[in-house]
Each structure stands twice: as C-alpha cells, then as structure tokens.
Amino acid sequence: MKNFWQFIKFGVVAVVCVPLLVAGVEAAEIETVPDLILSAVNAGYTGPDGSQQNYDFVEIFNTTGEPVRLEKYSLVYTNSAGNRTVHNFLAGAILNAEFLAMGYSNAPQFAEAENDYKYRFNLAAATGTVSLLLDDVVVDEVCWGSATCAARYAAFATSVASNSTLVRCIVDGLVEPCADDRPFEFRSYYPEFDFGVLLYDVPEEEPPEEPPEDLPSCRGLIFSEIFTYFEFDYAEQFVELFNPTDEIIPLDSCKIDYKNRNYEMAGEIRPGEYLAYRHANLQLSKNPTSSNIVALIDGDGAEVVSLVYYSGQKKLVSWAFFGVDEDGNGVWRQTYALTPSEENIYQEFRSCPAGKIINPRTGNCINFFEDEPLPDCPAGKFRNPETNRCKSYETVAKILEPCAEGYYRNPETNRCRKIETATASLTPCQEGYERNPETNRCRKIRENNGADYGVEPTDYTDTSAFVAYGALAVVGTSGVTYAIFQFRHELAQFLRKTFGKHGRMKL
After folding, report:
1. pTM (2 decimals)?
2. What is the domain range of residue 161?
3. Do 60 and 175 fall into the same domain?
4. 77: which of 121, 231, 343, 478 fits an S-S bond (Cβ 3.0–4.6 Å)?
C-alpha cells in the first residue's frame, strides 16, 4: 500500500512539473536567441590585376527587424596559430538595418568606407574562425579548414572562378537550415555594401570615459624605415619609428603588429628622435612575394599607423621615408644607406671599395684612377667605358659580317653605319681636308693637284695602230706561205685536174 501511494505522488509530480519544465526550456530557448547572428563570411581572393583580399568580408544579420545597439557586441577572428584579434563596436553604435557588411581595411571594396565598417584582421583562406560575441559570450560562430567549431566547413577557394562565400540560409527574413540541416552553405554571394546603416546615439548622461592623463599613448609616431633583407640573420632587421611632434611619446602601451602577432614595446621617443625597433621573435619576410603590412597599435587596441613594404627588396637595402611630395603623398625609396635610429639618407647605388667608383649605367663598381689619366690603348684596341679596360677590335670583328653596300663599320662601336645618315650629322672638314666617301672620315687633300704645271694640247698620230696592223699582215702572210708549201702536191694535182678538164692548161 505504501508503494502505491508513492507511485501516486510521483505521478502527480510528473503531471504538474513536466509541463512546467518543458515550458521553461522553450522560454529559455526563446530568450537565448540572439538579436544578431553571422549571415555570410568570405576570406577574399586575389583578382586578375593582382589586387589582394577582394571581398574579404563578414556579414551580420539582424533577426529582430528593429534597430539594435552594438556596444556590447564584438567580432573576433582566430587564426591558425590560435591568436585572437578583436573588433569592438563603438559606444552608441546602432545597427539600423537588416544586414551589416564589414570588410578588411585593405580590401578594395572598402577603400572608401568609414573605419566603423572595417576590421583590422584579414581572413586566411586556408583556416580560421569568426565569432560573434555578446558581453564576451559567443552567440554565433563559424570556422573552416583545420579549425574546430560546431559549424565547421572546408577551406575557401582563392581563385576568382571558384571563389564562393559561406552563406547562412535566410528566406524572407527567417533563418532556415541549409542542405543536410547545416547552418551555412558555400555559394556565390557578393552583397551590395551599404556604408550608411550605422547610427550613433550617445546619451549626454553617459558620456564616453576619457582615458587617464597618465595612460601611455603612441599616437603621433610614424614609420620612417624598415630593413628586412639581411646578410646573415634576422637580428640585423629593424623597423624604425620617428617622433615628428613636440612632445615625448612613451611606448609602454604600444605594440608592433605583424601577421596577426603583437610585439611589446618599451621606453620613449623624444621630439625629433628616431628609434630602430628590434625584437628577438619578430622575423620579417626578407623579400616577400606580395606586400606585407607592419602596424603600430596603441594601448587601446587602435591602429595608429601602418607600413606596407613590397616584393622586390634588395640585399642590404632598406625601404625608407623621405617626406611628402607636392600632392601630399609619402615618398618612400630603396636606399643603400642603412640609418637605424638616425635621419634617413638616400643612396641610390652600393658603396664601392677603395680605388673603385660606381658605374651609374650598370650599378657596378669599376676601377678609378684619380691621380693620373689612363694611357691610350694600343693600335687595334679601344677602352671599354664600363670596365676601363682595353678591348681588341679584332676580337669583336672576327665574328662580324661585312657591312652591306652603302654602310661602313664604325671603329668605336663595331656597328654598321649608313654613310648618308652619318654624313648628314658630321661637321664639315677643316680647310685643306676632304671627306672620304668610303669611311666618312676627313683626309688631307693631296698637294699635287696639277695646278703648278702648264699643260699644252698636242696633235699626234696613234702609231701603235700601224704597228699592230703590220704585225697582223706579217703573221697572215707567213701562214699562207706555210700552207702552200705544205700542200703543194695536192694543190698541183687539183690544178691539173681543174684546168685539164676544160682544156685550158695541163701541167
């Protein structure tokens, strides 16, 4: 009987409590539905023109249909090394639209956008995680590649043809599951970016707190020089900062950001001073295949200034700042004069050892003879202007073909040159000289030109003609005489037959 009443009690409790528990769970689920969720993510791609991080963006969806305050939300990116970069929304910021598209600060599509629509991290295509936090609690998250999270997908494709976006399935403002009941799917999606959906409402009774006066700040500093292409090891590298202000700037809260890693700083920079920053763990790419970004981060996490250095760095050459041009653009040049913690010096060519100077046409060091001029080269040779050494014409001419008709070979260059073209640009010869039509060179006019001798006309008979005719007659006569003597019997017989036949003569 006792067991019976216990069973009745348990049944009553179940009838009363279970519906309440179910209702409580449903109410909890409804309350935990966030106002904002991630709706699209793209890690960007390199365009056909070489531009990078195209459409590197994160899109946020407003599920409420009403304006939503953003000051308690934050957007977090975690890279493959586990380093987190946080983007906090400004106090008083309000999302007054259904979607908010934010992009990487260096993406071409966000070049004209205000800073509130940009984040400082750039998403890696291979692996990464994007999280949306409310009061430091994750309310939505998506990851790709080797990263681990509940909504995990494959890596992004970086080519233009196959690049696609991770998109949440939203139909008529309602979130629905995608294929295989997954929250996201890969498809072609590039939204229209609206840079006017954020409003700001900062109540007068709650003004933003001002930082204490003694809070260190590195605002005002600029980058002046960066040296990456070392000779022996990374310890030679440095990033130089310059203080153009009239105040001492402390560095205790400043950081150098490179490839999503922060490096602490310390000390101070006085007005007009330079500081070469080195860190044991900071290893800059010597000669990157694409542009690299080094940023200076303030104590509040804001980016103060950034420096971009490009591929094509030369060994023992730095990338240095040399003021601004007439349009207000910074002038950066490669220089062979490394000046860590000092004012920059522009040196176009390398330094040559003693006794040599730079050849500005080649950038190579050549011998330099300061005290005495170089002697003339021997016959058949000329001095090479790049090496200052004598070079044989014959050595070069042996493999050269003769110049075509109307051309001659220039002895200084060993090239064929047109006579007419050369003559047109040559200066007239000096008095007493004339131009040789074969070489285009001036030659001295011969002194014996016949002007000093009197010449009188003389009539004469060409006796050589008579002599020739006489010799010809002698030869002919001799030949006839020899022929008659040689064939005299035959001729006599012929004559006897001929004249005897007609009865005129018989020998």
Report:
1. 0.39
2. 32-200
3. yes
4. 121
